[in-house]
Amino acid sequence: MRKKHDWLRETYRKSLEKMPERPVAHRTLSDIAPEPLYTPEDIGVLDPEYEEKRGFPGEYPYTRGVYGSMYRSKLWTMRMFAGFGTAEQTNERFKKLLKAGQTGLSVAFDLPTLMGYDSDHPLAKGEVGKCGVAVSSLADMEILFDGINLEEVTTSMTINSPANAIWAMYLAVAKKRGYDWKKLGGTIQNDILKEFIAQKEFIFPPEPSVKLVIDTFEWGPKNVPKWNFISVSGYHIREAGSTAVQELAWTLADGFEYVEAALKRGLDVDEFAPRISFFFDVHNDFFEEIAKFRAARRIWAKEMRHRYGAKNPQSWALRTHAQTAGVSLTAQQPLNNIARVAIQALAAVLGGTNSLHTDAYDEALALPTEESATIALRTQQIIAYETGVTHTIDPLAGSYYLEWLTDEMERQAMAIIEEIRRMGGVVRAIEEGYFLRELAEASYRYQQEVERKERIIVGVNAFTDEIPLKVPIQLVDPEVERVQAERLARVRRERDARRVAEALEGLRRAAKEGQNTMPHFVECALAYCTLGEMMDVLREVYGTYQEPAYV
Amino acid sequence: MADLNRRIRVLIAKPGLDGHDRGAKVVARALRDAGMEVIYTGLRQTPEMIVSAAIQEDVDAVGLSILSGAHMHYFREVKRLLDEQGASDILLFGGGIIPDEDVPKLKELGVAAVFGPGTSTQEIVDFLKRAVPERWKAQGLA
Questions:
Q1: Which of A367, A374, A387, A464 falls between 20 and 30 A from A203, CA-CA?
Q2: What is the ipTM of this complex?
Q3: Is the keyword Isomerase assigned to this protein (chain B) (predicted)?
């Protein structure tokens, strides 16, 4: 039986060599100094399943965290999702967030960009810059990251169908500014399966969509080795109405589906799996959320090791970003959301997340204002620096309820994963409408429970106010559409038309012949091809997807 | 002569590029459970598609669900096309993430009701059961 003493001497020490303890007092307010970790040994109990189920931080099965010293050495990355209006406006917000102490960037794109349309496309009308920043070409991307050191900051980009193109634009900015791709860190969401399940920002049918994702699995580790080329996302699944168990199961099932697709292409699991990252939602049910993170790590580790034969421990370790639940926020009594976000963020931290976005209190009303975004960031900083939850790793481990709930969520999630496997995998389950039906059921059931007051939501179905509280909200300047259209016209006028045509032709050929598209996306980006032009080429080759209208 | 006891027909639509359809689907299902006939358009509908479906399906009301911030544009377009095609009698309502400041502007355009986050589905059912028969009466249909 492995002893804590051995873990401290081996894993913990090795972890500190890479990243020393933070120079803060790891002591309680009464000056008690907690050790980095507590195990059954510390309270003199026996847990015969300890090693198999819980183990030690930084070791298989990673239930207690993916890194040896976790927050004792390095806090989670505070990565606030931001983006609105033009590239100039968002660049300014980025710089303010960095100045306020945020440690990573996270880009929200507007709907035309997410759907692969240029800002001046007829379908973009009314949507440009509304729920994210508009990026139609390298010219926008250059402005978006103007004055930001790309080797110092890691950037996450929430982009899916056009992920290859947008990533190529980011890499093109780096290249033009002389940064080394080998030093770039960040994440593209690039999880198309959950789009078919929940968020619905798909362009092409499932099969070619997955093909594009696997192109990044193949090309990424060789060219941008520190980049996470996917963030397998449960967040949107949960927001669309799933339960926490469904979120857990479907997200991991998506992850396994990508692994299988990559293996089918002949890639080496230990080359790509270490760069797969995850993204979960954190809702109000405190212990269920903590258990979800712990169960997710354990399931991933077990399956990657035993089912997919991965040998590299980094292939077993599930690293995750988390976001507090936008869907839990209320338009009524909006300031209450600050409390909800704090509780959810605490759950994510106690669950051992590696990166976190906290929602702003006004998000049920509009995009965050500068003030509300700052309060959300400050909430993370209060948890990190004032609550002491970072003194010791996985501090709730060993709680009878939490350990039982972690096991129970693992059991229920595995049953769903097996069910999806029996259906023939995630793509088949999408085609059969399985997720749409399950989501419709779960979200309707929840709504009815709220309306019957079986679930109480403060300020909505209980403790309501006569006079609603007004908070200031952020409005997007309608000028954005015009600014974007002008910039696009200038880009199209000034670029080298021949280079553009050749780059797009190269992309078309690669798509038709089933070659890896990434080098061609990079060439297109450097040539200032627009996003719409690149996506149109693929629309021609792959066709588009229309979801059946199911209620 | 339409009869006042006929079933209310409602079109629920998701205009624009936004794919967040949880609210639209929950509302559609609640209206159906309340005895109405509900047609759901599916995602990514243009105003033209919505209005043409509303007329073809002979609905009493059209509900738009918009969370992307593009609500002013879509409500204006749908209302304009309904009027243009002689279908002003179809009741237009909607919901989503819509700032309070915009609600009077939408009402001015002719949007009969705007339901924000946290609205109970019963409220929407009650609204339609009241407003639609009122229209029938006003038009001398009943």
A1: A367
A2: 0.89
A3: yes
Separation of alpha carbons A28 and A269, rounded Å: 43
Task: Report helix, strand or coil for A127.
Answer: coil
Torsion, CA A538, CA A125, CA B91, CA A240, rounded to 10: 50
**pLDDT tens digits along B8-38:** 999 999 999 988 999 999 999 999 999 999 9
* CATH dotted code for B9-139: 3.40.50.280
Q: Do B17 and A457 touch (CB under 8 A)?
A: no
Q: Please indicate if any CB of chain A lies within 8 Å of the CB of B119.
A: no
Chain B residues 82-101 within an 8 A CB cutoff of chain A: 97, 99-101
Entry pTM: 0.94
Instruction: With CB atoms and an 8 Å threshold, state whether A366 touches B69.
Output: yes
> Is B60 near chain A, with CB under 8 Å?
no
Residue A111 and residue B97: Cβ atoms within 8 Å? no
CA distance A361 to A367: 10
User: Measured between beta carbons, which residues in chain B are less than 8 angstroms from residue A132?
Assistant: none
Of A112, A440, A443, the CB nearest to B17: A112
Sheet containing B91-96: order of strands = B37-40, B9-13, B61-66, B91-96, B113-115
| Greatest C-alpha distance within chain B | 40
pLDDT at A127 over 60: yes
B115, closest residue in chain A (CA to CA): A331
> Which residues does chain A have within 8 Å of residue B43's beta carbon, measured at their own beta carbons?
200, 547, 549
Query: Contact B120/A365, CB-based, under 8 Å?
Result: no
Q: Where are the domains of chain A?
A: 72-452, 479-542
CATH architecture of A72-452: Alpha-Beta Barrel (3.20)
Residue B108, judged by CB atoms within 10 A of its CB (0-12, 13-18, 19+), counts as exposed
Contact A547 B20 (CB under 8 A): no
Q: Give residue for tokens 């049953």.
A: A415
Residue A474: which region, alpha, beta or left (left: phi > 0; alpha: psi -120 to 50)?
Answer: beta
C-alpha distances out from residue B56 to A203, A271, A450, A496, B53, Å: 28, 55, 35, 48, 5
